[in-house]
Amino acid sequence: MSPTSIFAPVSTPADSIMGLSIFVLLTVAAIFVVVFGLLAYAIVRFRNKRNDDRSEPAQVYGSTQVELAWTIIPILIVVALFLAAARVIASVQDASRPAGALEVTVIGHQYWWEYRYPKLNIVAANELHVPVSDPAHPTPTFLTLLSADTDHSFWVPRLAGKTDLIPNHPNSMWIDPHEPGLFLGQCAQYCGVQHAKMLLRVYVQPREEFDRWVREQQQLPHAEMEGAAVSAGQRVFASTACVNCHTVSGTPAKGRFGPDLTHLMSRDTIASGAAPNTHKTLRLWIQNPDAIKPGSKMPAMGLSEKDLDAVTDYLETLR
Amino acid sequence: MSTTTITLTESELPVSRPFPLRLHEWVTTVDHKRLGILYVVYALAFLTFGGIEATIMRLQLIRPNNHLVSPEVFNRMFTMHGTTMIFFAAMPLVFGFANYLVPLMIGARDMAFPRLNAFSFWMTALGGLLLYFSFLGGDGLYGGGGAPDVGWFAYAPLTAKAFSVGHSTDYWTLSLMVSGIGSVGTAINIIATILCMRCPGMTLGRMPLLAWLNLTMAGLVILAVSPLTAAQLMLLVDRYLGGHFFDTQAGGSAAIWMHFFWVFGHPEVYVLAIPAFAIASEVIPVFSRKAIFGYPVMVLATVAIGFISMSVWAHHMFTIGMSSGANTFFVLSTMAIAVPTGIKIFNWLATMWGGKIRFCTPMLFCIAFLFQFLIAGLTGVTLAVAPVDWQLGGSYYLVAHFHYVIVGAILFALFSGFYYWYPKVTGKMASEFLGKLHFWLFMIGFHLTFDFMHIPGLLGMPRRIYTYEPGRGWDIWNLIVTIGVVFQAAGILMFAVNLVWSYYRGRVAGNDPWDAWTLEWSTSSPPPEYNYAVVPTVRSRRPLWDLKHPEDPDWRYE
Amino acid sequence: MYCLIAAEAAIFTIFVVAYVFYIGKSVAGPQPKEVLHAPIFFTVCLLSSSLTIHAAVRKLAVGNMAAFARYWVLTIVLGALFLFGTAREWAHLIVQDGFTVSTNLFGTTYYSLVGLHGFHVTMGLLALLLVALFYFKARLGPEHAERLEILSMYWHFVDAVWVVVFIVVYVIGA
Q: Percentage of residues in chain B with pLDDT exceeding 90?
C-alpha cells in the first residue's frame, strides 16, 4: 500500500476529497461505458462489408430531438457534479477554527520546510509534529502557509489536498488526522533545482507523546559541553559561516536562512528528508552537500577533517 | 459547372532547375501551400527534439534515485519539452494545416495577405531557433549551457533575476514573444481570408467545418496570445529595468503572473484542439460515407467552446488559495465547457452511425482520436472538481490527462489529417501498410505510457521531479510508462519512413482518391500554384457530392 | 486591422489590469497624487488629432489634396506634441522627483502602461510620416483613401486607449 495514496485518507479534508473523487470517478466511468459502448457498436455494426455495392448510405443531416437530448443530459450531470464540488469546497475551505486547534506557520524555502508554533514558542524544520485528533473532540492543526522565496506546495496526500506557499500571499489549510503515524509527502510546485528532494514528513502523535515533544523542543539544547572536542566543535561552528544561516537557541548563532539546528538530533532525517540523520551522512552533508542534494543552498564549508569531525560531534549534542 | 481544370503541374516545368534556385523559391515563397509545408516540416523537426527531451526524462525516471542526468539537466528537459511541443511543434502543425487547407477548401487562390503569411512563418521559425540557441548561449549559474529551466509556464518569482541568474529565462521569454508575433499574424490572415475570400455561393453556412473551426481558433489566438506577450513584456521590465510586476519583496504578486499566463494558457489548448476537431470533422464523414451530423450544432458548439474557454483559466490555479467563491465559479465554467465538447463527440458518433465505415489509416487515427478524446475529456471533468484537483493537480495524473488531450486526441487527429491530405499535397498515396504499422505501434506505446501514468498521480507523485523516493509504490508504473516510449518512437519512425518512401514510390493519387466531397478534391494533386483555374461556385456544403449525385444533391436538404 | 486592434487591445487590457490591481499596493515611494499632474493640454492634442485625421481622409477621398495635406500634417504635429508632452512629464518625474520604473509598484506599472501607449503612438506617427513622405513625392492620390482609412482606424484605436489610460492613471488611480 502506497504511503502517499489519495485513497487512504486519515484526515477529514483528504477523506472528503476521497468521497468526492469516488463519486466523480464512478460518474465519468459510467459515461465512458455508455459512449465507448456506442462507439464500439458503431465500428462493428456499421463497418463497410466486403461485398459492398458501393452505394452511399442514407444521408442524415441532423436531428433536433437527439441534439436536445444529448445537451440536456450532460447539463444535468454537470449540475450534479458542480453541486457536489461546491459542497466540499465550502466544507474544506470555509471550515471554522475550533478553540483547541493547534496553529503552525509553515514557511517554504528552497529546499526545506520551516515550522513555527507561535503559541508554543517552537521553531522546527523539515519534520512536522502534530497531535492526533479525536473525531468526537477534534483538535485539528491549522497551517498558515508562507514562503521565503519562490512558490512551493504542501502536499501530504493522506492528510489533505495540496495548498501552495506563495510569497506575499499567505494561505491556510487544516488537517485533523485521527490516526497516529508518519505521513509522507513532498513539495508539489516546482521551486528550483532540488524541488524533487523537498520532502515532507508529518509525525502524528498521541497527545502525551506530542506534549513531550513540545516540551523538549521548548528547551535549550542540553549543555553537554563535556570534553574539548565538543567545545572545539562549537568554536568552529561559531567562527565559520555556519552562524550566518543557522540558529542554535541559547548561543550567538541566530541565522535564519537555513534550518534551525537547536534540536537537530530530534529529527530522523536531514536535508528535508533527503538523507537519514546519521553520523556518516551528517558529516558528509557538512563536508559536501552536493553529494547528497546537488544544488541545495548549503555551501560546502571547506573544513579540514579535524574541524569537520569536531563540528559533527558538536551538532550531535543538539538533542 | 465543369470540374475539369487546366493545370500546369511541377513536372511540366523544366526538370533540371538547380538546387540553389529551388531553395531560393522555397525561402522566398508566399504561396500558402508552400508555407503550409514549411510549417509542417519545421514542426516535425521540433516534434522530434521534444520527443528526445521526453525520452531523456523518461529514462531518468525509469527507477527511483536514478543518476542518468543531473537535476539541472532534467529541469531544462521538462521546460524545453513543454515549450517546444506547444509552441514549435503543435502550433506550427496547426498553422501549417490551416495555411494549406483553408484557401483550398473555400475556393480561394491564396490567403488574404501572402507576404504577412511568409513573415509570420519566418517569425515562428526564428523563435524556435532562438529558443534552441539557449543550449549554446546564455550563462546559467551551473554552467554547461543556459537552456531555460523554469518550467514551460515560468511561474514568478522563480523567473526573477534573483532566482534565475543568467539569460536562460530570457531565451524563453524572447523566443516566445517572437513566435507570438508570427502566431498573431497568421491568425489575422486566417480570419481575413475566411471572411473575405470565400468563392461565390459559399455563404458562412456552407463553408466546410474545417474553415469554421480554424476561424474560431484564429479568434482565440488573437485574444489569447496577446496576454502572454503582455506578461512577458512585464517580466522583461522586471528582469532588466528593475520593475516590480512580479517582485513579491516590493509588494508585487506572484499570483498575477499565474492569472496572466493561464488567461493565455487555457485558450491556447483550444487553439490546438479545435483544429484537431476540424480534421476529425472532415475525415469522419468521408470514411463513414455520410454527411457530418448536425452541422449547425457543430458550429455553435465550437464557437461556444471558444467563448467559454476564455473564462475557465483559473482551473489551473485551484491550489493557490483563491477564495471558495472564486474556486466554485471556475468549477462551474469548466464544467460548462464540457457540455459543448461532449455534444461534438456525440455528433461525430452520430455521423458514423448508419454509415459504411472504411478503416483506412486516416479513419483509424480518427477512431482512436474519438476514443482517447473521450477519456481525456472525462479525466478533465474529474480535475474540474476543484477538491479533486487539490489532490491530483500538479501530479502525474494531471500530466497523464493533458498528454491524453495533446497526444491522444490532438496528435492522433493530426496524424489522421496527414494521411488524409497526403495524396493531395504530394500527388501520391501513402502506404497503407506502413500507415497501419505506425498506427498500431503508436497506439501500444501511447497507451502503455499514458494510461499507466495516471496511477503514480493517484499515489501521490508530483510532477517536475527529477527523481523520486523508492517505497512510495511508484516504481513499477514509472517503468511501464518508460517502456511505452520505445513503441511510440517506433511508430514515429514508421511515420517518417512512410512520408519519405511514399513520396517517391507511392501510387499516383489522382485528384480525389478518397471519393470525398469538399473543394480541394476537385483540383489536381498537388494543386497548381493558383489552386483553381476557374474559381468554383458552390450551392451546398458538399459541392462534390452534388456533382457526383446530381439526382440527390445536398442543396435540396440544407 | 480590426483583428490587429483586437490583439493590441488584449495586450493593453493586461497592462491596465496590472495597473488597477496594484493601485495602493506600493510598499514605499511616492504615490500617484504626489507626483502626477494630468496632462490635459497634451491629451486634447492627441484626441483632436483623431478629428484631424478623419478630416484628412475625407478630403483625400474627394481629391482635395491641399486640404488633405494640411489636416494630415496637423495630425502629425498634434501627435508629436503629445509625445513631447509625455517626454517632458517623464523628464520631470525622473530628474526632479527621482521617480523611475524601479522605484515602486506604481512606478513600474505607470511607466509600463504609459510607455507602451507612447510606443504605439510613435509607431503610428512613423506610419503617418511615411504617408506624408509619399504625398510630398507626389505618389499619393484619392485611390489610396481606403488604405488611409484603415491606417486611421489604428490611430483612433491609439486615441481610445489613451482615454482609458488617462482615466485609469490620472483620475481613478490618483
A: 92
